[in-house]
Amino acid sequence: MKSISYGTTTIAYKVEYKERKTLAIEVHPDSSVWVKAPIAATHEEIQSRVERRAPWIAKQQRFFHGKPEATVKPEWVSGTAIKYLGRQYRLKVIAGEPDVKLSGKYLKVHVKDKTDESKISGLVNTWYLKHARIKFEERLQLLQPMMEHEKLQLNSLMIRKLNKRWGSCTKKGNIVINADLIKAPVHCIDYVLTHEVCHLKYHNHGSQFWALLNKYCPDWSKLKDRLDNFNV
Ligand SMILES: [Zn+2]
Description:
Layout: E1 2-6, E2 9-18, E3 24-27, E4 33-38, H1 43-63, E5 81-84, E6 87-95, E7 99-103, E8 106-111, H2 117-141, H3 144-149, E9 156-160, E10 167-169, E11 174-178, H4 186-198, H5 207-216, H6 220-228
Zinc ion (ZN) binds near residues 29, 64, 65 and 199.
């Protein structure tokens, strides 16, 4: 694996030497970067091409799965805005035995020490993860008929804190969804799940991939726009 620096990030890439005349760069849905190079290409030639294409690569890596950065770090005190399934709630910190519950317009967090922000953030994040697991699996169930019809094999659904992406799909059929997606409206969750499920069949963003996504999620571009402008 080789890499170049681009801005504050590093772009890692793999090189495949092939019987071909020109050099091609591909960005796969798992964010990996592949360079298909003619056998005679030198390391310097490949590297300078990757460097020149870095803005495009970074855009590809972010474009379809990209998630905007959180604008401000939350303060874990009463009044802080809490997003859940596209709705906004307020955090209410109450002294008591550790517990988290959605109630009316509030996410009520009981904690022994109301000033212990790391404990509060831990409780809230555990609550988010638990509900992400329940909701994502429930929404994935709705895609079952599609998966059967298209003969798509999902190996596992994983939920992780991802920094810059909403989801990814590996060639082995493992789908990873960003836990923060639980903050977004349910239709946006459906879009990301459908998008990643389509990658079980096509591991690229080629025309067949879009045709499949269009078939099962005709509103995808509107939903994607919504997610692009969604701050967690
Ligand atoms: Zn994709």
